[in-house]
Amino acid sequence: MDAVWEYRWNLLEGTLVTIEIAVVSMVLSVLLGLLGAWAKLSGNKTAGAVAEFYTTLIRGIPDLVVMLLVFFGGQQLLNDFGYATNLWDYVEIDPFTAGVCTIAFIFGAYMTETFRGAFLSIPRGQIEAGIACGMTKPLIFRRIIWPQLVRYALPAFTNNWLVLLKTTALVSVIGLQDLVYNANAGGKATREPFSFFFAVLLVYLALTAVSEVGLRWLDRRYSAGVRRA
User: Looking at domain 2-222, which of 3.30.70.2330, 3.90.190.20, 3.90.1150.10, 1.10.3720.10 is its CATH number?
Assistant: First the structure.
């Protein structure tokens, strides 16, 4: 493990990149999920069809294939469009942007179903009661829908977050210097790949443990009223 210690700063930098990718991707995927859930529940046939196509497509394609398509094919499509319309000369998608957008796009589909199912779990009578009391739509969302939406969505959200955290390892194949990429480089340089990847295992386990502590606290907060009842 001496070689791992010598490369500790490289691994630390890679860990920070991994955390940054995971957090930014999760924020974007939540926004996509809320938008997708709204489209499916809105009653608009066009919006519902687009959201259904999106979730079906993403859940049927391997994550690695989507990553490579966005990184290579997305850049080519942008450049072809810019050349055809003369709007821009050349666009280069950096690995970080491609990785974040891909992971967010993938998990946005899972978040769509998570939020849709959570919304359908909210008793309709509570929303109708809010309307009867004269509450505005924003107030109904803030006081009735959102607290319960979070509570019902948390179990699936937790699973999505933990899977997303592990999925960040895919960005190493497009050259982004995350934890896995730096560990692989260190393992090749020192010819001790097992030591480096064992260190990666420990880091991911630590990130998972910290995540579970935070998500359990969030679950207790949003379930406090239910438990008192």
Answer: 1.10.3720.10
